[in-house]
Amino acid sequence: MPIKVPDLLPAKSKLQEENIFVMDESRAFKQDIRPLKILILNLMPLKQQTETHLLRLLGNSPLQIEVGLLHTSTHTSRNTSVEHLKQFYKSIDDVKSNKYDGLIITGAPIEKLPYEEVNYWEELSQIMEWSKTNVTSTLHICWGAMAGLYYHHGVDKYMMPEKLSGIYTHTINDPREKLVSGFDEEFLVPHSRHADIRKEDIEKVPSLKILSESKQAGVYMIASTDGKQIFATGHPEYDALTLKKEFDRDTAAGLNPMIPENYYPDDDPNQAPKLRWRTHSNILISNWLNYYVYQETPYEL
């Protein structure tokens, strides 16, 4: 089944080129189906790129999904046009009276800042508090996962001596968990972050369970026992070239970045990286939508 997106959203044409089933609003209006309402809080600087990443995964689900885009009004984006935000995005004040089946909170490249120093932390806290009563299940990604663990459960982050960047092997802790249904025993996930969370801190919280981890990248997936909060410290939504773009950007800025691990063939940045984590990403999103959203959400929101 398709995802329903605004008729003029730029990501729509790119996804159609990739044979992702996308339905515009005018066609969806004619179908007598109650779609899942999924809201994306996009905190990434390159918002159009992230829209494509996430819509690509949502579009692979057998469920019909109506997607809404949310941004923080207390932060001015320097990398996305005001026109794009006005046309396609809403603020929490616009949607706070609504109910949603699912919410996705993206990452943001601000791990080095204490949470309270993030200029939109108060607004983000308001959104996360609102999600407790107005959203069936929330998926937090990378910095969004760390922020969610801190806000909801008091689990703090720690700075790493070097940036974690690359493609890492992960394992599952309990194959009986619904979120990892259909996963391989080992699977790959991209990571790109300067901060980490500690396993022992999570294990102190009775309402949290670690579902997946990596010897190199640490804890990856955590879920609250009620399924309302899912946390993924990596970037399953990244496409094949996202880490390359980050590496090229940092190299051009004179930051002398480490070559992303296990990413380029032969660790040679002159070679094209291969996409090796798409299967995991698709299953993760499908499982979240099915078991934690569709199976739990009321028919009448």
UniProtKB/TrEMBL annotation:
InterPro entries: Class_I_gatase-like, HST_MetA, MetA_family. The record marks 111 as: Important for acyl-CoA specificity. The active site is at residues 142, 235, 237. The record marks 192 as: Important for substrate specificity. Its EC number is 2.3.1.31. Belongs to the MetA family. This is Homoserine O-acetyltransferase. It comes from Gracilibacillus salitolerans.
